[in-house]
Structures are given as structure tokens and as C-alpha cells.
Design goal:
TIM Barrel, single chain, alpha/beta
């Protein structure tokens, strides 16, 4: 599994084309909102990884979860899945983990509203992962889809 981590949209496009020619799954790590939108508009992308991981400050009344309703609608239209990386959650410390989980809850809510797909990446037990997603507010069908291989 190869993850595209570049900050340049043009470089990401080149790498996406290369991976598609090799029939590999295209996973792009989320960056800034403008970058994410341009990546989501590329139909060859399969997965946008961890949009909740960034160093931007949250707003007073809402979390900056890296996604919004428009981005989720674009992801749904282009069949791009939003991935939650469990390894990043495990690595995070106390307050950082709480902020990360609250952003993930918001992303799950947005994906539920727009019917965009969520998946989990990393090592996990299926029952535990299912329960984890349900506890974060995912619907039963959303949680089932997220843990399928």
C-alpha cells in the first residue's frame, strides 16, 4: 500500500496517474482544504486519508475536521472513500487524542449526512472496530461498510 504524501497537487496528479496505470489502490494523505478539494475532484483517487490530521486551530463554535459538506458530496460523487487511520489515534496523547476523536466524530456525521463512504486503516479486530465506529456516531450500515475487507 503506497500513500501519496506530496503537498503539490500537480505532483499528486502525476503519482495518481502512475499508480492507476499499475492498477494499484490510490491513497492520498489529506493536506490543506484547497488541496483536498482538488484531490477529491480527481476521479482516479480511491481514498483520502485522515483529513482530521492537521495543525490548524479549531473555530470557537465548531471543529476544523478537514472536511465539510461540499467535500463529502464531491467524495460521494466520485466514489472516493474517507479513511480513518487507527494507528494515528493510538499514537496520539491525551488532549491530542480527544481533539482527534472529536474531529473524527464530525467527519463521520458529515459522511453519514452525505452518504460518503468511510473506511478504517490499520490493525484492528472487526468487533472492536465496529463498536468503536458506533460509539463515534456512525450508523450500523456505515460501520459495517467501513470494516469490510
Amino acid at each position: 500500500m503506497e500513500i501519496i504524501t506530496t503537498l503539490s497537487v500537480n505532483e499528486a496528479r502525476k503519482q495518481i496517474q502512475k499508480l492507476k496505470k499499475e492498477n494499484k489502490e490510490v491513497i492520498v494523505r489529506a493536506q490543506e482544504p484547497e488541496f483536498n478539494r482538488k484531490i477529491l475532484e480527481i476521479k482516479d483517487t480511491d481514498i483520502l486519508l485522515s483529513p482530521e490530521l492537521h495543525n490548524r486551530k479549531d473555530h470557537l463554535k465548531e471543529r476544523d475536521s478537514g472536511l465539510n459538506e461540499i467535500l463529502c458530496r464531491i467524495a460521494k460523487k466520485n466514489n472516493i472513500k474517507i479513511a480513518i487511520n487507527l494507528e494515528e489515534i493510538k499514537k496520539a496523547k491525551d488532549k491530542e487524542r480527544a481533539i482527534l476523536l472529536s474531529r473524527i466524530i464530525q467527519n463521520i456525521m458529515l459522511c453519514k449526512k452525505t452518504k460518503a463512504e468511510i473506511i478504517l486503516l490499520g490493525e484492528y479486530d472487526k468487533k472492536d472496530a465496529f463498536s468503536f465506529l458506533i460509539s463515534l456516531g456512525a450508523s450500523t450500515s456505515q460501520a459495517k461498510k467501513a470494516i469490510q475487507d
